[in-house]
Write a structure and sequence with these properties.
Layout (H helix, E strand, L loop, with lengths): L2 H24 L3 H13 L5 E9 L5 H7 L1 E6 L4 E6 L4 E3 L3 H9 L12 H6 L7 H7 L6 E2 L2 E2 L2 E2 L3 E2 L2 E4 L5 E7 L8 E6 L5 E4 L6 E3 L8 E2 L6 E2 L8 E11 L2 E11 L1
Parallel strand pairs: 8-14
Antiparallel strand pairs: 1-2, 1-17, 2-3, 3-4, 5-8, 6-7, 9-10, 10-11, 11-13, 12-16, 13-15, 16-17
Length: 258
């Protein structure tokens, strides 16, 4: 064999050996690793949200509210152990709504709500003071009306909580955020066992499509179905409620659902 052909063959053999050794060192794992990562994302455990809520209805005394109302949350996005401080009338820990927003909406944007807006708002009565009870219709008067810096908003009648003979709990309240006085209306109804079915998309949760600007009665108000925004990961599950002696309790665990 000519010399130059022998040298060429040696080079081919050396290159082949190097290629084999490189492949063995890498273990041929590139494709399998990519597949594993994708599967890990797909099979990631769903988030959970456990709620323990209580509020006393028909009170305007912050000491009584502080002793009887609270919001406790444990879950995948942080825990809450909140109530109000009777001396300052402030929620403690501070900015409890921001903590709950991690569960209520994506990126703290209420338009990207992950649960019924009505339930997310109502849970905040566990850390609300008497002023909110009055403004939002939970003071026992059956009327909600807010005044901010000399401006008074529309009067909404028919607010409060009732429990029918068949066991259905109906909650009606309003809320106007910030310094606004024109509120949204919210209505929630349980089943006959006192269960609120979160994420079911039923007409048991309703809200006004926009803020109300004139006096209105809940019995004649125009409401739409209140549900999580279409296309977002939402919370699903049953919350058990009881309403006795002006105390509303809501407990249960929800699961993140795509």
């Amino acid at each position: 064999m000519p010399k130059h052909k022998g040298e060429k063959m040696k080079k081919i053999i050396i290159i082949s050996i190097i290629s084999v050794l490189f492949a063995l060192a890498c273990g041929g794992q590139k494709t399998e690793t990519t597949t594993t990562d994708i599967n890990a994302d797909t099979n990631a455990a769903s988030g959970t949200l456990t709620i323990d809520f209580q509020a006393i209805i028909g009170e305007t005394n912050n000491n009584v509210i502080s002793s009887n109302s609270y919001l406790k949350v444990t879950g995948s996005y942080g825990d809450i152990d909140g109530k109000i401080d009777a001396s300052t009338a402030a929620s403690t820990p501070s900015r409890t709504p921001d903590l709950l927003n991690k569960y209520r909406a994506i990126d703290n944007n209420v338009l990207n709500n992950r649960m019924e807006v009505s339930m997310g708002q109502f849970l905040l009565f566990g850390t609300a003071n008497a002023s909110r009870y009055i403004d939002d219709g939970m003071s026992g008067s059956g009327i909600a009306q807010r005044t901010v810096e000399g401006t008074t908003g529309p009067k909404v009648t028919g607010t409060g909580i009732t429990k029918d003979a068949d066991g259905v709990i109906t909650i009606r309240f309003v809320h106007a955020g910030g310094k606004t006085v024109e509120p949204y209306l919210f209505e929630m109804k349980s089943d006959a066992n006192g269960v609120f079915q979160i994420g079911a998309g039923t007409e048991n949760f309703k809200r006004s499509e926009s803020v109300v600007t004139n006096d209105v009665d809940f019995n004649t108000a125009n409401l739409i179905v209140d549900k999580a925004k279409d296309g977002v990961t939402y919370w699903k599950g049953d919350l058990q409620a009881t309403f006795e002696n002006n105390i509303i309790k809501i407990t249960g665990t929800l699961t993140e659902t795509k």
